Amino acid sequence: AFLxxxxxxxxxxxxxxxxxxxxxDIQSDDNSSNDMKAGIHLGLLGHFHLSETLAFQPEVVLSxxxxxxxxxxxxxxxxxxxxxxxxxxxxxxxxxFRIQAGPHIGFLVAANSENENNDDIDVKSNFKSLDxxxxxxxxxxxxxxxxxxxxxxxxxxxNINETDAVNSTNNGLQLGVFYLxxxxx
Length: 185
What we know:
This protein is mainly β. The chain has one helix at residues 2-7, and strands spanning 13-28, 37-49, 54-71, 74-92, 97-115, 120-122, 130-141, 147-156, 168-180. It contains one helix and nine strands, in the order αβββββββββ.
């Protein structure tokens, strides 16, 4: 990323803000069943034009993830908060539409389990501090204003459990809005 920033230093670049809705769940190989949990994401993005049709977009995003599940007779929520760093390559169409894909790394900030009785338990020690994944999606930016919308699906690639007894991955859909400061068509 640092090398690419140096290469594109003379190229067109923008900094922006983004925010939106997350719908995440956790896929496990033990046949357990989870439901999607809603959360939010907030962050910063850089948008570097590599050519007229290609761009590199690194981001730093606080992301609320996790899942809903039933523990015994209580409905519970697993709340996982990550700082995610996606590194996306985008193909830009001349009408504002973009398709994008790239890896991301997530840094676990907090992990809590909360049940319907409002019992909140810190479970961070049960999860690995790093999460790796792949994002794929599409976005649209309104060229004159710099405002846009983004839809992305993130596939977890690494086991998030601290123990290897069960292999679990974060998977989720993100729908967001963004604004690029000083955007040029």
